[in-house]
Amino acid sequence: MSDQIEIIVNGSTHSFPLITGSENESAIDISKLRAQTGLITIDPGFKNTGSTKSAITFLDGEKGILRYRGYAIEELAERSSFLEVSYLLIFGKLPSEQEFKVFTKEITNHTLVHEDIKTILDGFPSNAHPMGVLSSLVCSLTAFYPASLDPNRSAEAVNLSILRILAKMPTFAAWAYKNKMGHPVNYPDNRLDYCGNFLKMMFSLPTEDFEVDPVISEALDKLLILHADHEQNCSASTVRIVGSSQASLYASISAGINALWGPLHGGANQAVIEMLENIRKDGGDTQKYLNKAKDKQDPFRLMGFGHRVYKNFDPRAKIIKKAADQVLEKLGIQDPVLDIAKKLEDAALNDPYFIEKKLYPNVDFYSGIIYRAMGIPTEMFTVMFALGRLPGWIAQWKEMRENNEPIGRPRQIYTGKNLRKIDG
Ligand code: CMC
Question: Global pTM?
Answer without folding.
Answer: 0.93
